[in-house]
């Protein structure tokens, strides 16, 4: 890592979401950075942050607050977005404001599936894949204006607590990353010289696992033989697609599970991409420790 970083003032958007608090924590813990938070006046903030962290508030929705955003972004070195999937398209105005404010670096809200995968894009709602990819394409169009970007592919958070196996893909491996490591990856990237991390995707994982492998580990940790239900993956996909076509968004978790575990949908992105774990000096994690936390 670089001994001196051009990135010092970091503003986090979406700090109260799933990943946001972890981002705030790792940046705040590093004396290299001065972290602040952006939120909307209408947002209900149930999470409390340390009093020394500045919280900037805009009066309306982000896509109607560009002039306010430019003022807030002025003087910031990097904007780290962790906004919810449904709000992903609003990042365009964040990007425009960042360009006008002279921000050096923008990290879009990715942190999940490899959104370049066309098969996954055909199954999942646009805000999970297509809209995220379009945001990166928009960032690419802003490179000529001096704004650099980095997108992080981290897989889905490690949170499976039940023994439900997609029988066709029970042995298929996929990448997954804990929230802490995902946040640490972003922070460590901001410490590096821009030529190493600018205008590219970085692929990170805590574990490369399979459904059956997780089940075996859970049975070992609990000293219990778990009840297992085996589901027809293709039938589940068919039913979920039909539900989604009728506007029933309860099908989304099923489709997310499918694209994670099924071959060809980008779940095991380390099969075709280089890991950035070493580049970002990420520590190794213990699968046993991660599972133990889930069980407690």
UniProtKB/TrEMBL annotation:
Domain NmrA-like: residue ranges: 8-145
Entry keywords, A to Z: NADP, Oxidoreductase
InterPro entries, sorted: NAD(P)-bd_dom_sf, NmrA-like, NmrA/Isoflavone_reductase-like
Domain of life, source organism: Eukaryota
Name this protein carries in UniProt: NAD(P)-binding protein
SUPFAM superfamilies: NAD(P)-binding Rossmann-fold domains (SSF51735)
UniProt GO MF annotations: oxidoreductase activity
Pfam families from the UniProt entry: NmrA (PF05368)
């Amino acid at each position: 890592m670089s001994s001196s970083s051009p990135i010092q003032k970091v503003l986090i958007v979406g700090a109260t979401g799933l990943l946001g608090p972890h981002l705030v924590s790792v940046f705040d813990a590093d004396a290299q950075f001065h972290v602040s938070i952006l939120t909307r006046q209408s947002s209900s903030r149930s999470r409390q942050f340390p009093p020394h962290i500045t919280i900037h508030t805009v009066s309306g929705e982000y896509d109607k607050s560009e002039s306010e955003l430019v003022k807030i972004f002025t003087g910031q070195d990097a904007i780290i977005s962790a906004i919810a999937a449904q709000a992903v398209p609003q990042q365009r105005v964040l990007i425009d404001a960042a360009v006008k404010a002279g921000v050096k670096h923008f990290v879009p809200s990715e942190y999940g599936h490899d959104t370049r995968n066309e098969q996954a894009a055909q199954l999942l709602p646009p805000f999970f894949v297509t809209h995220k990819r379009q945001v990166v394409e928009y960032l690419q169009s802003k490179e000529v204006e001096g704004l650099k970007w980095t997108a992080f592919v981290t897989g889905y958070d490690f949170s499976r607590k039940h023994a439900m196996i997609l029988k066709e893909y029970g042995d298929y491996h996929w990448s997954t990353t804990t929230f802490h490591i995902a946040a640490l990856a972003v922070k460590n990237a901001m410490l590096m010289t821009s030529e190493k991390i600018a205008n590219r995707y970085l692929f990170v994982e805590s574990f490369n696992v399979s459904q059956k492998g997780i089940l075996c580990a859970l049975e070992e940790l609990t000293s219990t033989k778990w009840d297992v239900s085996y589901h027809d993956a293709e039938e589940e996909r068919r039913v979920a697609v039909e539900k989604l076509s009728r506007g029933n968004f309860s099908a989304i978790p099923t489709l997310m599970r499918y694209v994670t575990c099924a071959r060809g949908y980008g779940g095991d992105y380390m099969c075709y991409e280089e890991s950035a774990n070493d580049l970002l000096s990420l520590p190794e994690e213990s699968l046993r420790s991660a599972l133990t936390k889930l069980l407690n």
